[in-house]
Amino acid sequence: MIYTTLLNIAIFQGMVLGLIILKSSLFNSNSNRYLACLLFTLSIVLLNYVFELEDVFTSYPLLRFIDAIDWIFLLPVFTFLFIINRIDDAVKNRQKIYLCLIPFAYSAVLNITQDLDHVAGIYTIPESGIDLINILGLIHLALAVTFMPFLPIYSYFMIRHLKDSQEKKWIITLLTIISSLVFAFLITALAGLFLQYDISSTMSVLALSATFIIHWTAYIGIYKYKLAKNKDAVYNFLNNDFAISYSNLEIVENSTPEEYRESITVDNLYFQKLELLCKEQHIYTDSTLNREKVAEKLGISAGYVSQIINTITGDNFANYINQYRVEAVKEMMSNSEYENYNLLTMGLESGFTSKTTFYKAFKKVTGQTPNEYKNTSK
Predict the structure, then answer these.
(1) pTM of the model
(2) Does any domain span residue 241?
(3) CA distance 19 to 23
(4) Tens digits of per-residue pLDDT, 94-111?
(5) Which domain holds residue 365?
(6) Residue 217 sits in the same domain as residue 360
(7) Contacts of 268 (CB under 8 A, 6+ apart)
(8) Which of 25, 167, 187, 319 would bridge 315 by S-S if both were Cys, CB 3.0 to 4.6 A apart?
(9) Radius of gyration of the chain (CA)
(10) Residue ranges of the alpha helices (H) in 195-301?
(11) pLDDT of 212-247, one tens digit each?
């Protein structure tokens, strides 16, 4: 009873934590979305295990469709995608990340195909097809023993591209814990398959370990390490001092911005939201963007926008936004998809209003004109 209660608490926490990460702009980023998916997957794995312990599948056999899917395949996948989306785009773009989903898709299709016969009784697999299913099952096993160890090992090589040493330490720990869980599960499953070993007690320990991962991620990953880069803001968020709508990235607070005494450092909540607006929403491409528009999105005054940028970056609002626009142009120059664009078109696409402001800002940021930069970067 106590054991299943612990599992149920972890399942609930994993689901809630995943939803918080997905729905809140305080945490939301491409990499963190995969962390949320990792938590969802762990919760589903635990839920299936609880269903098995409570003999739920006997009363509701159609639930076996969920249990039949090898969700464990997704643990190394989402861990890898979480890591790969925290490194430089130049490295990330070289990875064919869609390939890592192939084993899970293959496993899901194979298992569901069999369950449509064994569980749902929609059709009966003919004897001639059973041999084919067995062959496909061997391929499934081969994918498990090769793919599941390979992806975590490859993820360790990707971690070296992280620049933040504190972030690297936390992610190495997360990867090590997930990898240990995956390896232990794989070895246990193989022992049960080939040695007829009773794996129930080992699986109970592994399930308990999965609950630890969820609790640990909540404390270390979100509060202590600060995925949102702001411990006080995270604390207030989790205690409902304010709510954040990701759809429009506006803050709805119980108090005014002036009353919320947020320190003006790089961890400042509003500066982090501004960075998110630029990096994820690309608001700098709006040529009419000004302090007032940004202030409205952040839910603070235009003066406070300037104060944050001046204090943290040592620059003014216009130069701060132009740096993002220049970086966007540089990316276009190196991307073959934009080879038919001339330099002015790239500048206008990135949010500059004229050739003069584009060239002036580009020279200020890079020390070269766009033409000089393009020639030297070839």
Answers:
(1) 0.61
(2) no
(3) 6
(4) 667 778 889 999 999 998
(5) 247-376
(6) no
(7) 230, 262, 308, 312
(8) 319
(9) 25
(10) 200-216, 231-238, 269-279, 291-298
(11) 888 777 666 655 544 544 444 444 444 443 333 334
